[in-house]
Design a protein that fits this description.
This protein has three domains: 3-44 and 275-331; 48-262, P-loop containing nucleotide triphosphate hydrolases (Rossmann fold); 349-444, no CATH class. 56% of the residues lie in helices and 9% in strands. It is built from 25 helices and nine strands. A nine-stranded mixed β-sheet has the order 4-3-5-2-6-1-7-8-9, with helices on both faces. Helix 3 (60-68) packs parallel to helix 9 (244-253). The longest helix is centred in the middle third of the chain and has 33 residues, at 264-296.
Length: 583
Amino acid sequence: MDLREYEQAKFGLAEILRSAATLAGADRDGGQKDRFQDLFARLAEDRFSLVFIGRFNRGKSSLMNAMLGTGRLPTGIVPLTSVITTVRYGTHEKVTLAYRGTHLDIEITMEDLARYVTQQGNPANALGIAAANVELPAQILRRGFYFVDTPGLGSAIAENTLTTETFLPEADALVLVTSYESPLSEEEIRLCRAAADTGLRVFVVINKQDIVSDDERREVGDFVRGQLRARFGDAVPQVFSVSARDGLAAKLAHDPFLLASSGMPEFEAHLTSFLLEHKQSRFLARMCGRIRDLLELHAHSQGIADLLGRVDSLVRRFDRRSDSAPCADPPLEAKETAFTLQQLRSCEICAKVDDAMWEFLRRYQYDLVADGAQRAKFAARSGFCAFHTWEYRSIASPYGACVGVPPLLDRLAEQLRTVANPERRLSTSKGIAAAQPASHDECVLCGVRDKAEAKAIAALAERMRNTPAETLSRLSAICLPHLSMLAAASQDDPVVLRALAAHHAALLERVSEDMRSFTLKHNAVRHHLETKEEQTAAERAFLLLAGYRNVNFETGAIASKAHRPKTAAHPAVIDADHVEPEA
């Protein structure tokens, strides 16, 4: 099981709960509704909590930065006050301060964080800050990792150590960060022993291996293991040698060789493997048991037996995985596509077409008011197609419409009067059918749309052929209709087509996960846990499926069936912070 499979298992349990609540009529029974909601809440609030401890200047923040693949957490600052700093996933970078004795949080910049959580900026925590909560758009955090950076041990501030010890029961694992400069103090050993006595898994990381020789590395490593063995016996914690500085540099530069030599992949793999095994055997197993107990209370309801079977199937799958030999997963970054916000923006083809149509229509509606010849041409073409008639209406003022449209109405009226004249002996039904808005081929705005679309597709296909890796790294969430057209324009290049397919498969999976996560948190009534991406997941799904409403649309029998996609969506940006208005 990897991190994605673990998340999918939770979504599967949530789906069983959702179906059971409907079958049991929990929405009509307040007591039953609370029981179901409690289980939803447990699933929604589950996360991998990692508590990082260590003396000042050992590199705790540097190690977290290396794991996150970002250099945003402040490093190299003076000993912390008694303030816990938490790091979780957020669509955008955000820092909020929680104060003791009040629910009023304030938001600050990352650059200002040190002013509030250091002894220099906030002596003895005189400001009364309970916690500094950081949100970062890092993939490992999106998968449920929750980092807790504790006050540095060994400072003159006794409350620091007390704060750290108090927070340990909240952890799934403890990461002790020491360094090759002065490894493993007595205080660090004592805290590790206390944590291990409570059943908490301890990982020991010796940081800054880049500043010592191989011989020094072996010597310090043997010393640390010997010290731990004297205190822990056979249950000695795992020890890892890393260079957080090299690990971060390697991730930022996408340098696999430097990353491997930094020691970070081995540490991350063992940590992830343990957490998954720990969560699978404890959290998921307990959740299956609780859900089964609740379902059995409603065994008389039709369909519950099938849901019990699905729970049992999950349990058997967990058991099979537990019996198999454990293997260390590769680092998360090597297994998944970590999309940037730039890549999550809505279809760039749709955006270019939308811009071209808007600019044309903005000028054209003015021309219809100012130029009689344009009004005559507009009438002769039977105006716009039915869809673009409403697009024109959305931008034209009542005055502009009342100037531009009458010649068209007069022309159509003349056609219908010709049909109504019994002396003309014309086909009545055909004559009435002819008095319609313009067809796709006649509509001037459809022509603008088609030309802009072809130009944008050709330009993107050219970039994909010339610089595929760079283009793919910046590619937006192309809607499926335009993805098909882009593939057709790529001249059957198998490398480009496979890259496009893989990129968009991962993108579709990500949006699906955001939708499922939103549903779970909604059922759990845990709206404060929702990210911006989850809140806009439904909109983003329709954008991926069909693109902008005014770019990909259906015009019925009038449309060119070979050209026009059949589905539509509201135009928006997958930036999660705002939705673009219709043109």
